[in-house]
Amino acid sequence: MGYDVSFHPISPEEMQKWYFTPLTWVQQGQEEKVLALAAQHGIEDFYAEKYLDTLRVGAGTAPDELFDKSHGFYIAVIQGFFRDYYYTRGSA
C-alpha cells in the first residue's frame, strides 16, 4: 500500500486569518466576508467557492471530532488556495 505526503507551510497568524476567523463568519452567516477575503487574495471564483465549501464543512464539525482528522486537514486544504504546497506519492 502506498502513501501520500504533503507539506502545507502556514503560520499561526495565517491559520487565524484564513481559517479560524472565516470559520466564525460562516457560523454567523457572513459568507460574503469569506468571498471578499478570497477576492482580496486573487483566488478565482471556482476556488473561492471550494474555500467556502471547506469552511462550511469545518463549521459543521462536531466539537469532539479529532483535530487531525477535521480542522487540521481543513487548514491544509485552505492553505492550498492561498499559497503553493508540496505533494509526493509513494516517496519521502
Q: Treating each run of at least 4 consecutive H or I residues as one helix, how many helices?
A: 4
As a percent range, the share of strand residues is: 5-15%
Q: Got a strand count? A: 2
* Shape by Cα distribution: globular
Q: End-to-end span in angstroms?
A: 14 Å
Mean pLDDT across residues: 91
Strand order of the largest sheet: 1-2
Biggest beta-sheet profile: 2 strands, antiparallel
Class computed from helices, strands and strand pairing: mainly alpha
Low-confidence stretches: none
Order of H and E elements: EHHHHE
The helicity comes to: 55-70%
Structural account:
With 92 residues, the protein is mainly α. It has one domain (10-83). It is built from four helices and two strands; from the N terminus they run E-H-H-H-H-E. The protein has helices at residues 12-27, 31-40, 45-59, 71-82; strands spanning 4-7, 86-89. The protein has a two-stranded antiparallel sheet with strand order 1-2.
